[in-house]
Amino acid sequence: MPWQHPPVPHSACRSALSRAARSAIPPFVAFLAAAGALGTVASAGCVSPGDGPSPPANEFYYPAGLAISPGGHSMFVVNSDFDLQYNAGTVIALDLDRIRAMIPPVWDTDDPRYPCGVLGDNRQTVLYPGRCAAIDLQAPADGAGTLVAASTQIGAFATDALVLVPPGPAPTGTEGGARLFIPVRGDPSITWIEIADDRAEGTTRKLSCGQSGDSPRCAGAHRAGENASSNLRGAVLPAEPYGIAATESGDALLVTHQTAGAVSLVTNPWEGTPTLQFVLGGFSYGALGIAALPVPAYVRSRGFEYNPAFLTTFRASAEVDTVRYYNDQAAAPARPFVSRTAVAPITVNASGVDSRGIAVDSHDRIACEQSCDADIECLRACSEVPLGVFIANRSPPSIIVGEVRTRVGDTWADDSVTIFDSVPIRFGPSKVQIGQVIEDDGLPHRRVFVSCFDSRTVVIYDPARLRIDAEVRTGRGPHALAFDPYLPIAYVGHFTDSYVGAIDLDRRHSSYGTIIASIGAPKPPRESK
Questions:
Q1: What is the spatial distance between Cα 239 and Cα 184, in angstroms, rounded to a whole number?
Q2: Has this prediction a pTM greater than 0.90?
Q3: H or E, element range at 95
Q4: 302: which DSSP letter?
Q5: How far apart are the two ends of the chain, measured CA to CA in Å?
Q6: Mean pLDDT by 10-residue block, N- to C-terminus, for the chain (529 residues)?
Q7: Distance CA 68, CA 77 (A)
Q8: Contact yes or no for 260/44 (Cβ under 8 A)
Q9: Cα-based angle 358, 360, 365 (whole degrees, multiple of 5)
């Protein structure tokens, strides 16, 4: 990028609980649960796709996931239908190129559009921070029509979004074969959508998931984990899928389950259909965060077998578990599986439990590998450069800091996790991601971003200087984060009021660490109107 380096019944219980949820669960009570883990208001699998009106195809509604397309021209917003007002959730593809052009230059007094241009002033800055009025999705200020380029329906209670592209060079034709993966608790399933690899010229913003002319909803063939006959083990996806991560090649995805104490494996053959293959149980309650470890370049250059590793975190256990993926290609037929291979305790906090998101920082190792010019011994030395590990923890509120060290031999490699520090932050942390800001030198420098749902804050932590760089005051319920590949902007999904905020990440600006634009007009939850 330019600037940055047991099956669940699907019949009677679903319909009954859906009706009960609408009549008996006030939306604001749901928000209290949401602050816990984006909530377990209803048992997964008990949401009828036939009850209630269809959701609007051009609005946000409790956004739970954000993702940027491979070429950076679209932003995908996953809406969860959290209070069950509709019969489905949605995925919306936004024209990110136009959104960039409308972000106001609130830092540049010399710009004739300063501070808000045609947007006008924001008159509710306490509830919805930001100097300027929101960018209207349907009638934006550029006069070019709706910003919603495509939309489709999915199940309720989606939790995340992950875009994957096939290995190899970017396509040179019209459309590539990228995919968007979404854990959906209401099915439960891993819903997958074909999207354009828009690194190529002339690509579209279509969302293809087997919709028919009679229904805008993703077809059953695009919901991995529902059909026990699709795999050799007769497995179905357990309840409450939550976090999702993938191998570098995108051929395998691991999914956590926040009530089942399990991790599921979904394989993703790029020329075939993503399929649930294996469910590993025996984990602590509240498996939430998951992050993939990068494969050392030395391992790739030597070509010996290396089983990709993932790190997982839990609400009820003070530990980080290492889970490895085995493709089982030597078997006939192959039966891929995962195994828990290590457990690292968290002892740097008062209790260490209630860990949420986890992120891995591979910047230093990748920089080392890029300097090697394919020299094998250099690559071997770079394999031992530690990876940073950052965990959003709530007991007490903090960023848990650790590292992964990799040992390599002539034909093997192994990873070990150590936790060694805790950084106090605002209460209610939920998601953590690695991103970048522009420093005073005009160059990008990495940061750790933590969205704190309960305290209306996004914390920006500098891992090099070991300090909090900024605390961004947001609207209510900040959760999902995504980073613009062309501008120093972070996008934060406001779950409670259903809009997206844009955060300035350029330290040279007076507006650094503040929300400078709102995308979509904020809508308070129904109970609080």
A1: 10
A2: yes
A3: strand 89-95
A4: H
A5: 42
A6: 40 34 40 47 49 91 97 97 95 97 96 93 94 96 95 97 91 73 97 93 87 90 96 96 97 96 96 96 95 95 91 97 96 95 96 95 96 94 97 96 94 94 97 98 97 98 97 98 98 98 98 97 79
A7: 9
A8: no
A9: 170
